[in-house]
Amino acid sequence: MSSxxxxxxxxxxxxxxxxxxxxxPKPATFESRTLxxxxxxxxxxVGHNPLWxxxxxxxxxxxxxxxxxxxxxxxKGKNILELGAGAGLPSLAAAxxxxxxxxxxxxxxxxxxxxxxxxxxxxxxxxxESSNIVAKGHVWGASAEPLxxxxxxxxGGGFDTLILADLLFNHSQHAALVATIQATLARSxxxxxxxxxxxxxxxxxxxxxxxxxxxxxxxxxxxxVVERVMDKLMFKDDRGDEMMRRTVFGYELxxxxxxx
Length: 260
Prior knowledge:
Distance between the termini: 84 Å
Helix content: 25-40%
Shape: globular
């Protein structure tokens, strides 16, 4: 039998899945948040993403409140960088409250980055005309030059305020996160990295907290500034201590060799 005969015996679509074999992608969802200053943000969340960008995390909500409470020190006229931003709530609030430049970042996944841009565009009606906010993809631990290029070279070598909200469950990425903080935080006594998180898996709380030991070894001074119990659980069917899963812990990181 010739090779052409063999080819005729194999249906060209034998390995093709039938129609509707895979479930359709989940559609985007929306959540609205009204800021303390009255502006309402309608935030688009990706329909589903393996990097968890389809949630509006407790840490993002609480760190936004903290920014407002300390707006003069942490926001107004400041260069701000958010890592692992998802919908970008804290970054959008900072831009509304008078930040000089805001760079909102997440893993360079097309859907995640585009979603951040959609939320920026959707907030244009409440953003000041002078606001400068951009969305970028960034891999933690990679070169920070593309991020630093978004701000003026005379900005103390980096950003005044960094925002990390609910990222510590990525235990394998702690060292990369600290490296990014070191590479992007301005060398200034007042420069601050805000690290807010909830231990959604309480039995791994020690692993979450190991991030701060790496940060201390990376010459940062670590100060606990917030402990807030939320009204509701994000994942009510999960196991583990309920109070821990409702609590947001907030920390400030500053250069240990520079005193304010």
